[in-house]
UniProtKB/TrEMBL annotation:
GO terms for molecular function: [acyl-carrier-protein] S-malonyltransferase activity. Gene3D superfamilies: Malonyl-CoA ACP transacylase, ACP-binding, Malonyl-Coenzyme A Acyl Carrier Protein, domain 2. The lineage of its organism: Bacteria, Bacillati, Bacillota, Bacilli, Bacillales. The gene is fabD. Its EC number is 2.3.1.39. InterPro entries: Ac_transferase_dom_sf, Acyl_transferase_dom, Acyl_Trfase/lysoPLipase, Mal-CoA-ACP_Trans/PKS_FabD, Malonyl_CoA-ACP_transAc, Malonyl_CoA-ACP_transAc_FabD, Malonyl_transacylase_ACP-bd. This is Malonyl CoA-acyl carrier protein transacylase.
Amino acid sequence: MSKIAFVFPGQGSQKVGMASEFIGEGAAFRSFADEADSRLGIGMSKLMQEGPQEELTLTYHAQPALLTAGAVIDAALKEAGIRPDFAAGHSLGEYSALVSAGVLTFGDAVKTVHRRGLYMNEAVPAGEGSMAAILGLGAEELKRVTDDVTDEGHPVQAANLNCPGQIVISGSKRGVELACEAAKAAGAKRAIPLDVSGPFHSSLMKPAAQKLQAQLDSVGFAQAEFPVIANVTAEPVQDPEQTKQLLVEQLYSPVRWEESVRQMLDLGVTLFIECGPGGVLSGLIRKIDRSVTVLKVEDTETLNKAVETAKGWS
């Protein structure tokens, strides 16, 4: 039988107005926004709906905002009778996947990712680290580039193994700049700076990971209702303790997204539904396998289309 996977985007997908149809005053899922506001003590829902974009992009704002958008869309799909067989999220999106699978409550998750963002910002203040997507250069060639730059005293490494021909690098601002120049000289087609505020999934995040461990120990983890494909291993996970440990490692380890998608394909997934703004993951999945069906849900119109498709899926 064909299977369905929900996938959740990470930082870089945030935009002002996301999920507004679901969380505005009187909307069906306004309770999620109210809980986020209450748990964080900041006007998260107002920031999501009104911005400004510069504030929304700060990692300690973007993370709870994207988690809220993903959780709301997940709830809307389930209320319409669509449930996944698997879930996965890109970086921060893994927390949304864990909320979907019942591993974390929304309240615990939104507080945790806010603190995760604060810890990440403290480890490397905004503007001192960065990330960039390298297109058209193989993993081995890119590793030689990043190793050379790191050896010169500017740390940088592969952070997201996204799809064939696209690898994201992460590190110090100067390290990423030098690696982009060297990658293009080595044959990369393009080097594109990303709209994020820190060097995520790099060794520079290890101080944040130590603080995150204490935060994760303070919240409850349940057995997953269905498998979540972990970023660190690209393997299905349901055990609570294993999930917690992988979230700590995820902060300074590469996101193995291409392998995660191939894992879900091997497990029988034929329909992917991206829950959140943008469409980055939909694009990556299509580059990994053009034969698979990928839908994105970010408003009521795309929700209705996805529900109609998924109800007839077999």
